[in-house]
Design goal:
The chain is mostly helical and 77 residues long. The protein contains two helices and no strands. The protein is flat.
Amino acid sequence: MARSPTKELIAGFWLWQVSSKEEAIEWVKRCPNPFPGMEAEIEIRQVYEAEDFGPALTPELQAQEERTRTQAAANQA
C-alpha cells in the first residue's frame, strides 16, 4: 500500500521523569512505532525545572516564574 504525501504534521509527545539520559533511551526503545514497517524518528529533549538552576535562580526570577505559573493556571480555567 503506497502512502500519499501529507502536508500535515503528525506529532505527539511523552514526558517522562527519569534520572539519566540512558534511562530515557530505555523508555524510547519501548515506544510504539507510529509508522509500522517504516522508519520513524523520535527526539529526546531535556526539560528543566526551576529547581535545576540552583543559585542562578534569584529570588526575583523565582517570583517571576511563580507569576507565570499562576497566570498559566488561570488561563486554563
